[in-house]
Amino acid sequence: MQILDTNVLARWLLNDDPVQAQIADDAATQPFLLIWTVFTELGWVLEKAAGVPRPIVAQMMEQLLTFDNAHMENAAAVEWAIERYRLGADWADMMHLAAAPVDADSFVTFDKKLARQAGEASPLPVKLLKKPS
């Protein structure tokens, strides 16, 4: 199964270059795999590089997951990341948590904001490291 690069997905979603958008559309007619790294980068590209507002980025990402030809491992975890992102969380941080392997028992960080944004329903518990008192 083919994997579409971030730039192909961005052209397809944004339709900002008619020639490349058509080529991307043709590529998306075949089944494709959405891999974690591309999906993470796509969120950044849409919001930061293309200036798409956060609610629309979240909507685009959700729609991409429901597209018949798109396949992604553990889509439920990605849906969780999209919902946290929609509520204001950092996209990459939430994708780190969603992409964790099943044998991981915690995500260890100094980032208080990440721990707060992940919330209680995080697919992987966040362990916040603190400075000794």
What report would you give on this structure?
- With 133 residues, the chain is mainly alpha-helical.
- The chain has one domain (2-101).
- The chain is 55% helix and 9% strand.
- It contains seven helices and five strands, in the order E-H-H-E-H-H-E-H-H-E-H-E.
- The protein has helices at residues 6-14, 18-27, 36-49, 54-66, 75-86, 91-98, 112-118; strands spanning 2-3, 32-33, 70-71, 107-109, 126-128.
- A three-stranded parallel sheet has the order 1-2-3. The protein has a two-stranded parallel sheet with strand order 4-5.
- Helix 1 (6-14) packs across helix 3 and helix 4 packs antiparallel against helix 5 (75-86).
- The chain is elongated.
- The mean pLDDT is 94.
Q: How many domains?
A: 1
- Radius of gyration from CA coordinates: 16 Å
Task: Name the poorly predicted regions.
Answer: none
Q: How many beta-strand elements?
A: 5
Give the oligomer, counting copies of the same chain as homo and different chains as hetero: single chain
Biggest sheet, spatial arrangement of strands: 1-2-3
What is the strand content?
A: 5-15%
The secondary structure category is mainly alpha
Tally the helices: 7
* Mean pLDDT score: 94
Order of helices and strands: EHHEHHEHHEHE
Overall form: elongated
Query: What is the terminal separation in angstroms?
Result: 53 Å
Biggest sheet character: 3 strands, parallel
Q: What proportion of the residues is helical, as a percent range?
A: 40-55%
Pfam family, one: PIN
Protein name: Putative nucleic-acid-binding protein
Domain PIN: 3-118
InterPro entries: PIN-like_dom_sf, PIN_dom
